[in-house]
Amino acid sequence: MMEWKQYTRGRVIAEHPTGFLIIKPEGYEAINNVFCPVCGSVMGGPLDDESMNKFNCCDSCSTFWAYPNKERWKEGWRPTAEEVINKYSVSHI
Questions:
Q1: Radius of gyration of the chain (CA)
Q2: Integer Cα distance of 75 and 55 in angstroms
Q3: What pTM does this model have?
Q4: Mean pLDDT taken over the chain
Q5: What Cα–Cα distance (Å) separates residue 83 from each residue in 21, 58, 64, 76?
Q6: For the chain, what is the HEC assignment?
Q7: What is the band of 70 on the pLDDT scale with cuts at 50, 70, 90?
Q8: Burial class (CB in 10 A: 0-12, 13-18, 19+), 78
Q9: Domains of the chain, residue spans
Q10: How far, in Å, CA of 43 to CA of 39, rounded?
């Protein structure tokens, strides 16, 4: 979870876990996450929105992780950070 701090002119600032800064108006809450809670990729487009509403992850993660593990997913299972990193590793392409 990112820690939001007062910035300037009614805005807050936080450092994303990957190292870049996010600045937003104070009190602003996005309807959906900007980043996938599973893999950390930027959410973008209607397929990601649909997957976020259904599985709380991006479309790619819903296809790769959530659908094949529907029952476990409903019970709260998520891939480990290592599994996610291995999925996106260049050596697996």
A1: 15
A2: 12
A3: 0.62
A4: 88
A5: 26, 16, 11, 16
A6: CCCCEECCCCEEEEECCCCCEEEEECCCCCCCCCECCCCCCECCCHHHHHHHHHHCCCHHHHHHHHHHHHHHHHCCCCCCHHHHHHHHCHHHC
A7: very high
A8: middle
A9: 1-30, 34-93
A10: 10
